[in-house]
Amino acid sequence: MNSKVFLVLRILFGLFLLFFGLNKFFDFIVFVPETENAVNYLEALEVTKTMHMVAILEIIAGLSLLVNKFGALLMVILMSISINAVLYHTTLEPSTITGSLILIIFNIIMLYGYKNQYKNILRA
């Protein structure tokens, strides 16, 4: 991947993660779930402080992409959050799936961009 394109995508994704991670703490954009099941699921995540952990991980991942440190590691960790976000929106909130699709697509692109750093771990 072209280094300049990767740099731009890395910065955009870092800002995306930072914004939505901070949004979980400060509620710049308020998301109102449409279904009772979605409300119950999100309430359970709030009670267990899972959303705070997700927010902290998103903020750390965003900052790591912006400063270009530990990005490859955090993209692997962030993939679980990306998959869960897509599953949540697919099953409980299909009308608001756009953000989670952007998240997983960016995550896959970043994993591809860091592919050389994974060669030693994936070698049999």
For the termini, the CA-CA separation is 25 Å
Overall 3D form: globular
* Poorly predicted spans: none
* C-alpha-based Rg, rounded: 15 Å
Order of helices and strands: HHHHHH
Structural class: mainly alpha
User: Main sheet?
Assistant: none
> What's the tally of helices?
6
Provide the fold topology:
Layout lengths: L2 H24 L9 H12 L2 H18 L3 H21 L6 H16 L1 H8 L2
Helix pairs in contact: 1-3, 1-5, 3-4, 4-5
Task: Give me some keywords for this one.
124 residues, mainly alpha
Quick description:
The chain has 124 residues and is mostly helical. 80% of the residues lie in helices and 0% in strands.
Describe this structure in words.
The chain has 124 residues and is mainly alpha-helical. The chain has one domain (3-26, 34-116). Helices cover 80% and strands 0% of the residues. Helix 1 packs across helix 5 and helix 3 (50-67) crosses helix 4. The protein is globular, with a radius of gyration of 15 Å. It starts with a helix and ends with a helix. The relative contact order is 0.15.
